[in-house]
UniProtKB/TrEMBL annotation:
GO molecular function: oxidoreductase activity, acting on the CH-OH group of donors, NAD or NADP as acceptor
Native source species: Acer negundo (Box elder)
Keyword NADP on entry: yes
All copies of domain NAD-dependent epimerase/dehydratase, residue ranges: 8-245
The UniProt record lists the keyword NADP: yes
The protein, known as: NAD-dependent epimerase/dehydratase domain-containing protein
Length: 318
């Protein structure tokens, strides 16, 4: 008798990273439960076109703030990948309602459902946003898994996304430890790379704006960049390696916006790049712990070229 495929759940399956996680899981013969807000929505059509989707992917209509809908998607799964979280592409008028509550309560509901359904391992996708907003971190010291964003600093500087990710990760940590869940947290940096979905997500829109907006001036802020495919690989690695534990920073390249623009100009000279740059801050992060687990990342040029070509194919840069 053939062995039954391992069944796992991916929250936010139709999103930028979620879609790649689903694609990689299907390619490794997992049976995938994917949560989306509306399975029939056109923006989820790309999922049904993935290899092996017709036989191995089942979409569940779920709202992370509705516990029962989350539980119904997770029941019967041995593993859960909690990828979904609101990411704003513009300013947020009501951060508590639009960002913080959905991120925190959604994470609580996922963790609770995993506990109730006796899931073997949960992978929580957090963010470097929950790491780097820390004015008390010693200057010049590389930020690693022990560094956390300062919640009060996030509030006073109105970094609401950073606050939402920090609060949500704290919730996962507290619930997981209290209830004996086997969980691993992956904190990716700014994610670029090719789109599978038809809509533009917040992290990709940053690069698209660099190409199109013709800014007069931009602050030369540091950006930590990682490829969406490498993050999906990291997430699977954290799930499949029994020795994986705790937090893992997931980032490949740190560079100022000016250097990123210079790199883009060398690859694609004919776009409307920012004209000048003002001085920005700096920080250093390390993915050494994740690399010790066996993770590696692709060249930056490959990420940038594959990003732009996917935007072109989707008609976004026309």
């Amino acid at each position: 008798m053939a062995l039954e495929k391992e069944r796992v759940c991916v929250t936010g399956a139709g999103g930028y990273l979620g879609s790649w996680v689903v694609k990689f899981l299907l390619s490794k013969d997992y049976f995938v439960h994917g949560t989306v807000r509306e399975p029939s929505d056109e923006k989820n059509v790309h999922l049904s076109k993935l290899d092996k989707a017709s036989e191995n992917l089942k979409l569940f209509k779920a709202d992370l703030l509705d516990y029962d809908s989350v539980l119904s998607a997770i029941v019967g799964c041995t593993g859960v990948f909690h990828v979904a979280s609101p990411v704003p592409s513009t300013t947020v008028p009501n951060p508590e309602v639009e960002l913080i509550e959905p991120a925190v309560k959604g994470t609580f509901n996922v963790m609770k459902a995993c506990h109730e359904a006796k899931v073997k391992r949960v992978i929580v996708v957090s963010s470097l946003a929950a790491v780097v907003m820390n004015p008390n971190w010693p200057e010049g010291q590389v930020m690693d898994e022990t560094c956390w964003s300062d919640k009060e600093f996030c509030k006073t500087t109105k970094k609401w996304y950073c606050l939402s990710k920090t609060e949500a990760e704290s919730e996962a940590l507290e619930y997981g430890k209290k209830n004996g869940l086997d969980f691993v947290i992956v904190c990716p940096s700014h994610i670029l790379g090719p789109l599978l979905q038809s809509t533009v997500n917040a992290s990709s829109s940053f690069l698209i704006k660099l190409l199109k907006e013709s800014y007069e001036s931009m602050e030369n802020q540091p950006r930590d960049i990682v490829d969406v495919r490498d993050v999906a690989e990291a997430v699977l690695l954290a799930y499949e390696k029994p020795e994986a534990e705790g937090r893992y920073l997931c980032t490949a390249y740190t560079m100022g916006i000016r250097d990123l623009v210079d790199k883009m100009k060398s690859l694609y000279p004919n776009y409307n790049y920012p004209k000048s740059f003002t001085k920005g801050g700096q920080f250093m992060t390390s993915s050494e712990k994740l690399q010790r687990l066996g993770w590696s990342y692709r060249p930056l040029e490959e990420t940038l070229i594959d990003s732009v070509e996917s935007y072109r194919k989707a008609g976004i840069l026309n």
